[in-house]
Specification:
The chain is an alpha/beta fold and 396 residues long. It contains 16 helices and 13 strands. Helix 4 links the parallel strand 3 and strand 4. The protein is globular, with a radius of gyration of 23 Å.
């Protein structure tokens, strides 16, 4: 039981209420009945980055303790749009966008979770049948005053920024998911606390034992400042090529590395503590960073690809990148690879750039570019053409 609590608390921001969770763990141990642990994700975008996997890793840890994890795809709630942390109404997605994104989400999440032991659910199963009568009955279970305690709603109301009535339905519907699934624990990022607590409230309203909630911190991105985000360009996508993933992980600061170990690694806390002690005693921190990069790259690409990525990085290290390389700021993302190379003054023309791609002579952050149709998203990266031409490109 002590181990189960330690696993639960590892890296978490809050576990509420902890005594109730301890009681649930004790009951599960006594009866042999696994606890039901829920994670809901709205498929608002098709790609998952390492920041998204922080809660997935926690799910996997609890799954390995023998509990039942439920990967809930919010196909219904996506059509409302989560207002969490937003200062404006978010446009809802179409059913077609949701379907495509949901399929991609689960395929990528399965690289972290054990698919054979994961229950997949869609909240349209119980949300669609509610109908108008059921929705009105559900809305009667919560007050407008309580809803306005939510920080983002309060700020928008005071600023005179519009709040649509349908946005009040989002936390209600997310909370109702916990009723439908009879969940014992719900996970989410720190920005989801209000919605998670709504689940507890509604379960009590419907005569159920309330779930506990566990929030995980938002992973800081490669810049060491902001949370990992595609819009900030400081992210590592889990479907990125192995070489790019490995190189990006090695680019994080020595201090940030330990946070990544805690939130992303499957190594035990004792192993991580021992490794940290070795580094403090004089071991090169790069050794630890390589171990982290290999573990994460192996998880998403396999051991052979991780070994190859490490070898590729070492080869590039021997060749070296000049201490001073031109810095170029461009706009127009997503930008075709040929146009980017020309505008960065690395080739004379777009067509020459495409020829270099075809010949395997173009690298972005150390990863060979092989797709002539590649469009580069916003971000900052080192672009190399041939052996001697480099540029640090910031694309907006």
């Amino acid at each position: 039981m002590r181990q189960a609590l330690e696993v639960t608390l590892r890296g978490c921001e809050e576990l509420l209420p902890q005594p109730e969770w301890v009681g649930k763990l004790q009951r599960a141990q006594r009866t042999g009945q696994p606890l039901r642990i829920k994670l809901g994700l709205d498929p608002t975008a098709p790609d998952i980055h390492l920041g998204h996997t922080v809660v997935l890793n926690k799910m996997r840890q609890l799954q390995d303790l023998g509990h039942q994890v439920i990967f809930l795809i919010g196909d219904f709630t996506s059509m409302i749009g989560d207002p969490s942390g937003r200062n404006a109404t978010r446009p809802p997605l179409t059913a077609e966008q949701i379907k495509v994104n949901a399929e991609t989400y689960y395929r990528q999440a399965s690289l972290v979770l054990d698919p054979a032991r994961t229950e997949i659910r869609y909240n349209s199963e119980w949300s669609d049948p509610l109908g108008a009568r059921g929705m009105i009955e559900l809305a009667s279970r919560y007050t407008v005053a309580r809803m306005m305690e939510r920080d983002d709603f309060t700020k928008r109301f005071k600023a005179g920024t519009p709040i649509s009535v349908h946005e009040f339905l989002y936390p209600l519907m997310q909370g109702y998911d916990s009723v439908a699934l009879k969940s014992d624990l719900e996970l989410g990022g720190t920005d989801q606390k209000f919605n998670l607590l709504m689940g507890r409230h509604l379960q009590q309203e419907y005569g159920q034992e309330p779930q506990c909630i566990l929030t995980m911190p938002l992973l800081v991105g490669l810049d060491g400042v902001d949370k990992m985000s595609k819009s900030k360009g400081n992210y590592i996508g889990i479907s990125e090529p192995a070489n790019a993933m490995f190189a990006k992980l090695l680019s994080i600061s020595d201090d940030l590395m330990w946070t990544y170990f805690t939130l992303l690694s499957f190594r035990s806390e004792a192993e991580i503590a021992a490794l940290k002690a070795e580094v403090q005693a004089g071991r090169n921190p790069k050794d630890a960073k390589v171990m982290l990069a290999k573990e994460i790259t192996t998880r998403f690409h396999g051991a052979a690809a991780a070994d190859a990525a490490e070898q590729d990085f070492q080869n590039r290290s021997k060749g070296g990148i000049p201490d001073e390389i031109p810095e170029v700021t461009l706009s127009g993302a997503p930008l075709g690879i040929g146009a980017l190379l020309k505008q960065a003054n690395l080739v004379a023309s777009s067509s020459e750039g495409l020829r270099m791609v075809e010949q395997g002579g173009v690298r972005i952050d150390g990863a060979v570019v092989s797709d002539k149709g590649l469009k580069i998203e916003a971000g900052t990266f080192v672009v190399q053409v041939g052996k001697r031409k480099f540029a640090k490109v910031t694309l907006g």
